[in-house]
From TrEMBL:
Compositional bias annotation for Basic and acidic residues: 67-80
Protein's UniProt name: Cation-chloride cotransporter 1
Membrane topology value: Multi-pass membrane protein
Domain Amino acid permease/ SLC12A: 143-613
UniProt GO cellular component terms: membrane
Protein family according to the UniProt entry: Belongs to the SLC12A transporter family.
Region annotation (Disordered) ranges: 1-80, 106-125
InterPro entries cross-referenced by the UniProt entry: AA-permease/SLC12A_dom, SLC12_C, SLC12A_fam
Record field: transmembrane: 139-159, 165-196, 217-238, 278-297, 304-325, 367-387, 399-421, 441-462, 497-518, 524-543, 564-593
Any GO MF annotation of the entry: potassium:chloride symporter activity
Amino acid sequence: MRNEEIESSDDNELPSSAPRVGRKYGPVVAHDNDPVVLEMSSFDHGSSSNPLNKVKTSFQPNSGAVAKEESISDDRGVNGEHKESKLELFGFDSLVNILGLKSMTGEPMPVPSSPRGRDDGSNAAQHPLIQSSSVVKSGTMMGVFIPCLQNILGIIYYIRFSWIVGMAGIGGSLAVVALCGLCTFLTAVSLSAIATNGAMKGGGPYYLIGRALGPEVGVSIGLCFFLGNAVAGSMYVLGAVETFLNAVPKAGLFRETITQVNGTAVAEPITTPSLHDLQVYGIIVTIVLVFIVFGGVKMINKVAPAFLIPVLFSLLCIFIGIFAAREDHPAVGVTGLSLKSFRDNWSSSYQTTNNAGIPDPAGEIHWHFNALVGLFFPAVTGIMAGSNRSASLKDTQRSIPIGTLAATLTTTALYFISVFLLGSVATREKLFTDRLLTATIAWPSSSIIYIGIILSTLGAALQSLTGAPRLLAAIANDDILPVLNYFKVAEGSEPHIATFFTAFLCIACVVIGNLDLISPTITMFYLLCYAGVNLSCFLLDLLDAPSWRPRWKFHHWSLSLLGASLCIVIMFLISWSFTVVSLALASLIYYYVSIKGKAGDWGDGFKSAYFQLALRSLRSLGASNVHPKNWYPIPLIFCRPWGKLPENVPCHPKLADFANCMKKKGRGMSIFVDILDGDYHECAEDAKTACKNLATYIEYKRCEGVAEIVVAPSMSDGFRGIVQTMGLGNLKPNIVVLRYPEIWRRENLTEIPSTFVGIINDCIVANKAVVIVKGLDEWPNEYQRQYGTIDLYWIVRDGGLMLLLSQLLLTKEMFESCKIQVFCIAEEDSDAEELKADVRKFLYDLRMQAEVIVVSMKTWDHGDDHAQDDSVEAFVAAQARIKDYLAQIKEEEKQQFMVVNEQQVEKFLYTTLKLNSTIMKYSRMAAVVLVSLPPPPVNHPSYFYMEYMDLLVENIPRLLIVRGYRKDVVTLFT
């Protein structure tokens, strides 16, 4: 499921009678030996067997206040099923029933119902079900390492590497290998970082670049990279055919062309196959490879070793031949490993050659370091072969970094060793004139090298013909360019039409036969793609948004910037003209996509830069919902306390400390607000003075934020205006932070319940998240290091806000020694083990380290457990106060009193009691506890809600009560 569909699922709500679409969990099976599955037993509530009568009166003054019995309106539960939901108090569908993590993993999920239990006539968004994966998935070895190795080990090593050593010398060759190898290594590091920052779909580097730099840049570089792969396949095919015809001249169907070479000490005729032979055999080989590609990943994995093993064996024969060579070798110029040859071949000897590469004073080609870099660089390309097949990998976050870096380091080490060995085994003249020196010195026969050359080039061609169609299909599936809709494929299907198109391009280039004019542009396309990957990692690493949490830790923005700079430098070193051509082509595609393409918000890095730099952010981001990857917490800190502060202290000191804990590395904006009671005209100057004092205090506390003072007749009216108007565009606050009113009962502040409930209801209506801090006085400062755990009681789907807050707390020095525990509250009909496995997989994909514990609840009617708990006394007291309150309102407000479902009130009390006792039992020593905030139930007095909340927070020293706002703030995808 795409991220766009995830967001749409949040905006559409079903009526409470909508059927469930997602998976139903079976009943919990008792596991006596499993300490993870904890059973929450209900407490003996004594009077529950004699439920209090429900009281209902009409709010119509003239109706005579006639009471009548009415069935419980919420018996269906939040999911529309005819059963009681034990977690109904929390308003959202429970975690087990809806399992909000399904929306991020691409699995089908029901659309959440209204948080307040009200009917909503909007229709549910139709989510396409992702097919269950029956496609064979590849691991690190077959999916990444071998494809990269096959693409990197190409024809350059066999027929040109010894010649490069002769031309540049050992020292210059080492510089060439080091420059090209460093470029690909830095690119592989950047690729590893981006690929491990979430689940990765098909498309490889295109997917990574597009999601980091935007759809226009992604499509333009992706299409160029596709063309490079498709044309590179034809180059590999022609190289294999030419080597075969040179090894077996009699296989040629047409007459060979003979070129006489003069002007050298060793004048030999150079024979080249006929162009028509290259065309005929090239078309046949391409068709055979395409049939293998049509066999799918399973067929490719079976065939790949058949191409690679002989190549590795031929390399072994070359090294054996080098060590076995002696000065009496029958071939002229082969000295064996000799220190004299090493000294003679150390320095460079750039010369003018003919088209065959043989030194000729009358030749037309003059070689230098830049030209050799352009000649050798195709020998190190191919690091994207594994990421091109990302849709076919079992675990992209593990396979791509390990496989790509292993292949890069292996081949680079091979090239370094070969430079020393080839420079020490033959004379300079031999290195110049013998293009197949590797075959000459190979043991026991040169035919093995011919086989190695043919199979290595065919293996590279196979990987190109495999990766290019999948890249094109991935671009088409993103639905950015309508012209590419023909290449779309269903999830898990093979891109047959894209394979046909790739084969057509490959055959067309084979028919041309001479790719000398196109091959430099192909190299430019590879370098352009590598530069895009490095720039993507540079931007993401530099911005360091909360969504940037790659599992690959060995990266830095400076390395990515160096890698991108090297790519650009090498492009101009090879040919400035071809560099201009390739950049112009990419620019044209970019311009075409920006005009004809469909808009798509992929949460790219530029959008995150707009947030941080605030440069035309409102115009660029618009008023649409923020993508989860670009989501930053913008807390609205409600400074007005429930009680008095010391003089000249405009805000509770720990509120600023907590606001800083909600930011990653201090990035983000906080809005501190306070309310002055009174008339605006009379208090305007006081408000300005108070705002100035508050701003000064924020700066003193080193908290990035702004101060606002609002004058209103009352706190409720002032807050309602703030929550509606504060902020601008997407820079509006998304989290309301306030202190829990712990003093309301102690100081008998009877107006607090209605004000507190009104604030929460206003936040729900305004679609703002809420974080209520209980125990604010005990909140640690930056110098008080905490140990232990951060415990999350994840009860409802909140878009991942609670998970993200826990991760942000870990980034602070005071909490960096803590570990996260996630307690999932499950109902009695839930499969605890299955839920635990789902949550673990979800947290793994989110790059979050946490221990998962499932807490299972028993039925409400079970009253045999007489478990003693510190909260039972508070529970009994709350029951008594609620009874007194009911009696009071029945006595004092006979004409207009509220509709109270007393059985539901009792059930809500038991919910909070169970949760509080569980927190006290398993999280008594936790550094911080986070729990879901239940919304104020409809038709329940504010006093009742405060009783529920007091029972929930009883005896818990430091608690964050969190409620999300139905928008995902975390995402699995990179």
